Amino acid sequence: MIKISALSVAIIGHQKQWQFLRKSAELNRFNHAYLFWGQSHLGKRVIAKEFVRLLNCQEDPRHFSNSSSGQTNFTKSSGGCQKCWSCQAFQREIHPDLIFIKSEGKEIKISQIRHLQYFLSFRPHSSLFKAVVLEEAERMNSEAQSCLLKTLEEPSKNSLLFLLTEHPRMLLPTILSRVQTIKFFPVPKSEIKDYLKTHKISSSNIELISSLSFGRPGLALEFSKNPEKLEKAYKTIKEIAEMSQLELADRFQYVKTLASQEHDPKEILESWLRYFRDILRIKIGLPPELEISSSFGYNPSIPQIKQIINSIEKINFLISSTNVNLKLALEQIMLKI
Questions:
Q1: I want to staple 137 with a disulfide (CB 3.0 to 4.6 A). Which of 148, 163, 241, 251 is the partner?
Q2: What would be the CATH architecture of the domain defined by 15-183?
Q3: What are the residue ranges spanned by the domains of the chain?
């Protein structure tokens, strides 16, 4: 068992995105609705919450009032003072003016959007802005998306709405045209390692966590809190690496076993994606992120690797949006290895 201490949640990387939001708050020119777009575990949720906390901090209420220059008295370097009741309540996600909405099963339903609208229809309880964070917004069904349009077209006063998504193309064009889009990218491995070094984690675990997280701070934090999840992620990558040495019948048997067990298919596919992207790095002359990637002598052509990566990405997308047969989908990948 890998022994590591859990880390606190913090903004890791994304300094351009964060400074843009801070500047918009300083100038009182922020939007009522944002679309944060990027892979899961990049920190979109954290930054949305920090921005809400920043705007509602009780320490310096003057930064909400326009000065004669049109700017504000705003000097904070992070998401609020982090000490006042408001900052702490938003951080702990117990503030009455903040709610998070997630999918119920495979989709976000119209009833959830109506709850969002009801919540925003009232004035803030104990802050300047009420906020809703809609996670995996691409899971809204067509009715829910149509219902959300009314909120975007006629926003409530002093309200903030954050749509978090990996797949913006699944949202209606009319939704995309009414939000400010901010793209999030994987964080450099060095930045994740630097953050991990400030905590009591061994150098070997820092290397493993930063490698397996593949630029996603949220995943690095999860690995730091859950050693079993870290070991499981490594085991999944090791297994897919071993598949290249097996006959097709054995690969199909592996998929059958995998599909019959309780696994998160997205986690499996993301682990496979990390491995094959690492193989691609080796093929184009870059050093691998994971030592195991070069341990089995797997030597496919670059077009073959790209085909595998495209298949994994396509299936990952289908799993998010349809009731795809997992066993058949994974077998399609095994045919290409």
A1: 163
A2: 3-Layer(aba) Sandwich (3.40)
A3: 15-183, 227-336
Q: What percent of the chain has pLDDT over 90?
A: 45
- Quote the tokens at residue 189: 């491995």
CATH of span 227-336: 1.20.272.10
Q: Quick check: 30 and 64 in contact, CB under 8 A?
A: no
Residue bearing tokens 């022994």: 3
Average pLDDT over residues 113-139: 94
What stretches of the chain adopt beta strand conformation (E)?
A: 33-37, 98-101, 130-134, 159-165, 180-183
pLDDT of residue 292: 79
Lookup result for tokens 């964060």: 18
Phi/psi at 128 (5° precision): -85, -30
Q: Which two tokens stand for residue 233?
A: 């992620």
Contact 195, 10 (CB under 8 A): yes
How far is Cα 287 from Cα 172, in angstroms, rounded to an integer?
40
In the numeric block, which tokens belong to residue 117? 């609208």
* Equal CATH topology for 15-183 and 227-336: no
Q: Give the chain's mean pLDDT.
A: 86
pTM above 0.70, yes or no: yes
Residue 187 and residue 153 in contact, taking contact as beta carbons nearer than 8 Å: no
Provide the sign of the torsion angle of the four alpha carbons 297, 303, 309, 314, taken in this order: negative
Q: Cα separation of 171 and 321, whole Å?
A: 12
Quick one: tokens of 325?
């047969």
